[in-house]
């Protein structure tokens, strides 16, 4: 990272956490649902044979084909294979109209073999940005959408952006993000054109990318970091650099058991014991090789530094043993914020963890409080960190200097989904913290709370980990519920705790239970895979190839 990048952390608001949350109770209350048949199938992009990596699966296989217009209530859009942009706006569930065509793409999508997924972004209440998947970008003035008198979709700008395939080279490929600024060059000029254009390259499909409302910065959450490609730099050249960077071996490997950590470092050929100094402190380690600092940093947690040792093995590697102060605590990383090492997982460690998921979702509405159903205890559950995908980072880039200004290493805070709470702000993102799922609202820099913790979904980080077939994850903009769907049919709804009409008494803890968090399950009558999923405050919209389903979740007063 650039020397200016500040290493930041996300500040959790304690009052938004509920340490005594007792899990979700299954409610059998029926959820009203409605089904609409589509005139033409959704313009789905199937994976080609050469798109076999996990990253391709993330980019195409998990693409959400249903788009929500957050400027208007309960208004969703999809693109069908006739190139039509279809809109459904719901006023009354019992009197649903057919989805209506609002715009037709001039290009015939089916003629392109290697197109990407077409997408729509609702930039403001009267502007829409549209990418047709063939490399063409449209800026459309719509008037007030949903108002018959003033709504009219007109192309204000359209241009073929230079197509960059996600370049293949061996198994290496990179993802290209383009940041384009479009405006009228002169005030008297009617024509919109590109006035600024930057390209970023990274090695993984970003989980999240958003431009700050005033256009001054860009935020990206991704597993591999992104960097700006300098103007005029040969793409091949930067690709070769990226490749060599990818092949670089980790600086160290580490393993852990309940009570100790073992770190292995490969040494240069001719190293002797005299070349090496290792300094152990309770929460810090420093390795010096031939007078140069080789590895230094703050340990994730404390160690018994007096019992820690090191030896040189026959295969010219340095082996360090660290004794954990907190036995049984699973470390998600060895050094805070350090990505130069690789954790080697032991399958035996993973074995007994899944069972701990069970008490968080109950099969009955009012389970017997005497039964063993303890509240979620984060300490006891920390071993579930072993399940995490590799850690991602959250970066903010400055729009003028193109440098990284802030970095948050997300460590074990797995990225779950994003949601637009206020369309004038950047989308929020939801991360897993211990057992919970926490919602963060990014703000334009610079300010103290650049990422503000605005809501918590209790135990949801843990519950979603048990759903092996999950495809989409969402929550309502007022965070009254979260929902996830599987690839086929099933939709799970998790509501925030609400006061109960009758108070239960938990005899085990000798206290009253005044509220309950309900879990509901809906099953769609279809055998088609789910292609799109959007949540509004009142409804869930689920899109399949030929149908659009509505599930009424809340009845607003």
From TrEMBL:
Location in or out of the cell: Cytoplasm; Nucleus
Which Gene3D superfamilies does the record match to this protein?
A: 2.60.40.790
- Species assigned in the record: Rousettus aegyptiacus
The domain of life for this entry's organism is Eukaryota
- The name on file for this protein is NudC domain-containing protein 1
Q: Which residues form the CS domain?
A: 247-335
Among InterPro entries, the record links this protein to: CS_dom, HSP20-like_chaperone, NUDCD1
Q: Which GO terms describe its cellular component?
A: cytoplasm; nucleus
């Amino acid at each position: 990272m650039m020397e200016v990048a500040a290493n930041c952390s996300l500040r959790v608001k304690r009052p938004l956490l509920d340490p005594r949350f007792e899990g979700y109770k299954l409610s059998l209350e029926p959820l009203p649902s409605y089904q609409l048949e589509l005139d033409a199938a959704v313009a789905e992009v199937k994976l080609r044979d050469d798109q076999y990596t996990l990253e391709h699966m993330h980019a195409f296989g998990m693409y959400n084909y249903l788009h929500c217009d957050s400027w208007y209530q309960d208004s969703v859009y999809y693109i069908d294979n006739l190139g039509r942009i279809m809109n459904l706006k719901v006023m009354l569930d019992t009197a649903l109209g057919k989805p209506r065509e609002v715009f037709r793409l001039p290009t015939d999508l089916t003629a392109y073999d290697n197109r990407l997924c077409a997408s729509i972004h609702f930039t403001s209440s009267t502007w829409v940005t549209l990418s047709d998947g063939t490399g063409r970008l449209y800026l459309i003035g719509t008037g007030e959408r949903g108002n018959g008198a003033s709504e009219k979709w007109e192309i204000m700008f359209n241009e073929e952006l230079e197509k960059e395939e996600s370049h293949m080279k061996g198994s290496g490929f990179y993802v290209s993000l383009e940041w384009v600024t479009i405006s009228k060059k002169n005030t008297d000029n009617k024509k919109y054109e590109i006035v600024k254009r930057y390209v970023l390259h990274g090695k993984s499909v970003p989980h999240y990318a958003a431009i700050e409302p005033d256009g001054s910065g860009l935020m990206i959450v991704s597993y591999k970091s992104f960097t700006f490609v300098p103007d005029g730099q040969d793409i091949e050249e930067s690709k070769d650099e990226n490749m060599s960077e990818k092949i670089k071996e980790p600086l160290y490997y580490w393993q852990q058991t309940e009570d100790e950590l073992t770190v292995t470092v490969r040494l240069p050929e001719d190293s002797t014991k005299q070349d090496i100094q290792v300094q152990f402190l309770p929460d810090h380690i420093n390795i010096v090789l031939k007078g140069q600092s080789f590895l230094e940093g703050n340990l994730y947690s404390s160690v018994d530094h007096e019992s820690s040792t090191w030896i040189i093995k026959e295969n010219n590697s340095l082996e360090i043993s660290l004794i954990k102060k907190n036995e049984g605590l699973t470390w998600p990383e060895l050094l805070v914020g350090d990505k130069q090492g690789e954790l080697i997982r032991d399958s035996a460690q993973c074995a007994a963890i899944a069972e701990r998921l069970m008490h968080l979702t109950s099969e009955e509405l009012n389970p017997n409080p005497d039964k063993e159903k303890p509240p979620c205890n984060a300490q006891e559950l920390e071993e579930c960190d072993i399940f995490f995908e590799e850690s991602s980072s959250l970066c903010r880039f400055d729009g003028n200097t193109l440098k990284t200004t802030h970095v948050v290493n997300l460590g074990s805070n797995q990225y779950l989904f994003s949601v637009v709470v206020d369309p004038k702000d950047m989308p929020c993102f939801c991360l897993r913290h211990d057992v919970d799922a926490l919602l963060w609202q990014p703000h334009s820099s610079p300010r103290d709370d650049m990422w503000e913790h605005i809501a918590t979904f209790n135990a949801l980080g843990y519950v979603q980990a048990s759903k092996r077939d999950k495809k989409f994850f969402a929550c309502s903009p007022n965070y009254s519920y979260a929902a996830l769907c599987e690839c086929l049919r099933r939709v799970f709804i998790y509501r925030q705790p609400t006061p109960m009409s009758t108070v239960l008494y938990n005899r085990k803890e000798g206290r009253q239970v005044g509220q309950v968090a309900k879990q509901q399950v809906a099953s769609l009558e279809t055998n088609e895979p789910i292609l799109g999923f959007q949540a509004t405050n009142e409804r869930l919209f689920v899109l399949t190839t030929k149908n659009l389903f509505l599930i009424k979740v809340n009845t607003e007063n």
